[in-house]
Amino acid sequence: MSIRACALESEAFLALKDVYDHRERAAGQWRSKGGKVVGKLGSDVPDELVIAAGMLPVQICAAPDRELAEAGKYLENAFDPVVRAQFERLVDGTYGDQLDALAISNSNDTIIRIFYYLREIHRVEPEKNVPPVAFIDWTFTRSRIWQERCEFVLNLFRQQVEQWAGRTVSDDEIRAAGRLMNENRAALRAMAALRRGEEVRVNGSEALTIIGAGLFMEKAEHTALVRQVTEDAKGWPVLTGPRVFYTGANQEDTELYQKLEELGLVVVGEDTDWGDRSYERDFDLTYPVLRGVVDRYFLRTPTVEKSRVAQSVEILSRQVESTGAEGVVFYTNAYAEVATFNMPDQRKMLDGRGVKHVTLSRMTYPIRNNEGLDEKLAAFAAGMRGGE
Q1: What confidence tens digit (pLDDT) does each residue in 287-312 have?
Q2: How many angstroms separate the Cα of 183 from the Cα of each of 102, 239, 297?
């Protein structure tokens, strides 16, 4: 199934798909007009501060068919394969030619180590074409004291952004950026409503394309296109088939979702930053601006790596309920064992609710290189359809 003919008949969807398929183009056009581009690595780099400074935030992503010649010189093999592929583009000059700076948040231990490696490369090999790097050291514990520390950390990042931009960034500019991002999130929520409920009209591959385009383009333009494609999608055919929820590693393309859809399954939601999590929780415009940034990023649903066991069970239960999912796909990359710690209790909860599930662990990149994956997905889909 993947992307259907009805979606390809929408001019708004085609515009979003063009950005999704050609991820460097929007940033290149931005820079050609004199603008600066900031890359984001990690799940919690605040767009609001970058946008307020007049710069374009873009997500760092991997290239599936590229040889990892540079990554092999610096990284041990025991790294998440997607992160290795991202690192390759950071050190081989690709992003050095496309970015003015790079912001990294401490999403997990692997990303933290990538920051250390890049910092050391800057120190001992300054001739390498690697963008300047800033690190956002969010805390992992939620309390009043740690919230204040996060505000301190975000103020340091604000100062770094001002240095990159070559000017100060006012509170009013940050608040305006927060309003812009809230409008974008509202548009994405309206689109996502068409993935669930009694009638499903947007499939997972289409949703990932719509959401993902926003990781690489100017937000006001993205918002307008999302609103238009949402109106178009209200007339798309209703999707039938067992509904599944996806949890685990970010999917930077639609390959896995296409496999699920070709088996007759409908992906109605996910907990990733390339999906539903990207538009969760608004910026509170009534707060002081740094408090608003902390509230939005620090207090939204935690990532798989940052959630406690009981918390992860409750979160998944809520997500299955809200999306109407009849099955769950667990997917984790090789050397990402932390993301698997909560799964036994989550699977026990799903068994108690009669929700089917499949666990795909220690996966490599790109997806097509995983031997036996198609057979496992086919068996899961057959079980979802009642063993036919």
Answers
A1: 999 999 999 998 898 887 777 888 99
A2: 25, 27, 16
Q: For 246, list phi and psi in degrees, rounded to 5.
A: -105, 135
User: Which pTM was predicted?
Assistant: 0.96
Structural domain that includes position 151: 34-167+240-388
Q: What are phi and psi of 170, to 5 degrees?
A: -85, 160
Please tell me the distance from the alpha carbon of residue 125 to that of residue 355, in angstroms, as a whole number: 52
Q: What is the pLDDT of residues 101-134, one digit of tens each?
A: 999 999 888 999 999 999 999 999 999 999 999 9
Q: What is the Cα–Cα distance from 296 to 46, expressed in whole angstroms?
A: 9
What is the chain's mean pLDDT, rounded? 95
Nearest residue to 217 (alpha-carbon basis) of 51, 53, 57: 57
The Cα 154–Cα 231 span in angstroms is 37
**Residue 46 and residue 154: Cα distance in Å, rounded?**
9
Query: Is the Cβ–Cβ distance between 343 and 330 less than 8 Å?
Result: yes
- 189 inside domain: no
Domain count, the chain: 1
Beta bridge partners of 58: 39
Helix, strand or coil, per DSSP, at residue 37: strand
Q: Is the pLDDT of residue 1 over 70?
A: no
